[in-house]
Task: inverse folding
């Protein structure tokens, strides 16, 4: 890589990085038994358009990341605050669907 030495970073780069980081938000979806939850989500589509491949596809499309915290059991959404606010309904829906299944509650609508 060609660029400034690690000891010198131009001010405009620092300002740009700070502005970008201000837009990042971590949204705690709460305790969802994260380590077990990720195991209940099938690797591929479950026939309803829900699976880990779908979750990863939504993450890429929305430019957000779902974090499953095995230590606390919480699930987090990380990304641009506006995207989390307005564009992540499908991710929340997928996660809540499998959380309720894990909890033993049938959420199938007929």
Result:
């Amino acid at each position: 890589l060609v660029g400034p030495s690690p000891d010198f970073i131009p001010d405009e780069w620092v300002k740009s990085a700070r502005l970008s980081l201000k837009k990042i938000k971590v949204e705690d979806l709460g305790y969802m038994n994260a380590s077990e939850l990720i195991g209940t989500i099938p690797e591929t589509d479950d026939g309803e358009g829900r699976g880990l491949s779908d979750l990863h596809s939504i993450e890429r499309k929305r430019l957000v990341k779902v974090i499953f915290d095995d230590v606390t059991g919480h699930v987090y959404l990380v990304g641009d605050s506006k995207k989390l606010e307005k564009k992540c309904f499908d991710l929340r829906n997928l996660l809540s669907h499998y959380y309720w299944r894990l909890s033993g509650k049938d959420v199938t609508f007929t």
